[in-house]
Design goal:
With about 475 residues, this protein is α/β, with parallel strands linked by helices. The chain contains 14 helices and 15 strands. It has three domains: about 55 residues, no CATH class; about 260 residues, Aspartate Aminotransferase, domain 2 (3-Layer(aba) Sandwich); about 110 residues, Aspartate Aminotransferase, domain 1 (Alpha-Beta Complex), CATH 3.90.1150.160. Bound molecules: pyridoxal-5'-phosphate (PLP).
């Protein structure tokens, strides 16, 4: 979205005279500085109205097909979250019931992901997958340092292997924790990490391989089991024993319900840790993620701090200290409310919508699907070769006229030539809405075909697609 223009930034905030508490005329005289604290207070009603008015300019979250993050929850969940917004999760001694719910969620995920000993689960809630990935990556790095103390002291620099499709949090991890990223490029129609390529990129300084279930770029699952097998073969050849972290930000809450036979989790001996975003297909509003280790050995004890000044001896392994308790409670609510079968039904419905929508868009005749929404309920598409008059960026722009947010972007190395649109289906996006999107797209095509050529390109992209 465009931000306020130069004039807008300089002008004081404008207040509707009707918002004045009793006297509309006094309200009219009120001007508020935009970038300094106002000198004096105003009534709660006026402040809330001012903010609600301004928020109208935000997009409609339900029509946002760019984000993976939950945009609809049940009224009961809303109420529960509102009622518990005052609980600081970290005050475990103060709020033992909230803390118990977190432990139960961790145990449930340990079962769901087939941890070695689900009765002694090793894991924690986080603010999202980004924090969870930082923690997973830190454990990998510390374990590598233990195995290579001499080489590390002599200046060896650790590296982490992943596909160029890896989410930006992994680039941050490498940057912040001084680990060299080894990005395996895309090649031809391989849009994510391949098993052989992963093994080839490893050496004695590789702290781990990140396998993604599934890719944010196109919704495809990376071949976790094949990657583990290729790393087994690498160990047999070289002695380098490289652990795998599965970034299951989305797929961790899809695959266990829809493909229970797919082995991607702790059933694979090489998988050391797994993260997921509770606020993606875990169905909770943003700020909740989870990270699990296969066992205590996978999480070096020295990374766990013990705090006692809140009363009680509390182990903590997180980057944040204070954070909302309501998100943990909302996650527990959905685990309890839906159960295994309920999550299965919800995710199956979402994937049906994604696959239906992909097919309908393909049938329009000028788009080629790169994925079909049959892994994550997410798919990417590009224009067919004969389309020369408009770009995916044009399509993205024009869809905004109807309120749809569908991002367009180019793929990373070595497929920078490929520009795609991506659609993320979530719970709450219905078949009816899918039909509307297809109709809106169909109605745009005659206009797009009349263009002399593409108008917008990658530099004009307006949507953030991570
Ligand atoms: C969304 C996502 C992340 C980051 O997760 P947040 O919960 O938004 O911090 C990391 N990895 C993958 C694969 C993702 O899809």
């Amino acid at each position: 979205m465009a931000s306020e223009g130069e004039k807008g930034r300089q002008r004081p905030l404008w207040v509707n005279p009707l918002f004045g508490a009793t006297d509309p005329v006094s309200g009219a005289k009120t001007v508020l500085p935009r970038h300094r604290l106002p000198d004096s207070p105003m009534t709660p009603t006026t402040a809330a109205r001012l903010i609600r008015d301004e928020l109208m300019l935000d997009g409609n979250p339900r029509l946002n097909l760019a984000t993976f993050v939950t945009t609809w929850m049940e009224p009961e969940a809303h109420a529960l979250m509102g009622d518990t917004a005052d609980k600081n999760f970290i005050d475990r001694d103060e709020y033992p019931a909230t803390s118990d719910m977190e432990r139960r969620c961790v145990a449930m995920l340990a079962h769901l992901w087939n941890a070695s000993d689900p009765d002694a689960p090793v894991g924690t809630s986080t603010i999202g997958s980004s924090e969870a990935c930082m923690l997973g990556g830190m454990a990998l790095k510390r374990r590598w340092i233990h195995r290579n103390a001499d080489r590390y002291a002599a200046g060896a620099r650790p590296n982490l292997v992943m596909g160029t499709n890896a989410q930006v949090c992994w680039k941050k991890f490498c940057n912040y924790w001084e680990v060299r990223p080894r990005l395996v490029p895309m090649e031809g129609d391989r849009f994510h990490l391949g098993a052989e390529q992963a093994a080839e990129a490893c050496d004695e300084d590789t702290i781990g391989v990140v396998a993604i279930l599934g890719s944010t770029m196109d919704g495809s699952y990376e071949p976790v089991a094949e990657i583990c097998a290729a790393l087994d073969a690498l160990r047999d050849r070289t002695g380098w024993d490289v652990p795998v972290h599965v970034d299951a930000a989305s797929g961790g809450m899809i695959a266990p319900f829809l493909e229970p036979e797919l082995e991607w989790d702790f059933r694979l001996a090489r998988v050391a840790s797994i993260n997921t975003s509770g606020h993606k297909y875990g169905l909770v509003y943003p700020g909740i993620g989870w990270v699990m280790w296969r066992d205590e050995e996978a999480l070096p004890d020295e990374l766990v701090e013990r705090v006692n000044y809140l009363g009680g001896d509390v182990p903590t392994f997180t980057l944040n200290f204070s954070r909302p308790g309501s998100q943990v409670i909302a996650q527990y609510y959905y685990f309890l409310r839906l159960g295994h079968q309920g999550y299965g039904a919800v995710q199956r419905a979402t994937r049906e919508v994604a696959m239906y929508l992909a097919e309908q868009i393909e049938a329009l005749g000028c788009f080629r699907l790169l994925t079909r929404g049959d892994e994550l309920p997410v798919f990417a598409l590009t224009t067919t070769d004969d389309v020369t008059r408009f770009s995916v960026f044009d399509v993205s722009r024009r869809l905004r006229e109807f309120g749809w947010i569908v991002p367009a972007y180019t793929f990373p190395a070595n497929r920078e030539d490929l520009a795609v649109l991506r659609v993320v289906c979530r719970n709450g996006f219905s078949l009816d809405l899918a039909d509307r999107l297809v109709e809106d797209l169909r109605s745009l095509l005659p206009w797009l075909r009349k263009q002399p050529g593409p108008i917008y390109g990658p530099d004009d992209a307006t949507s953030f697609h991570h």
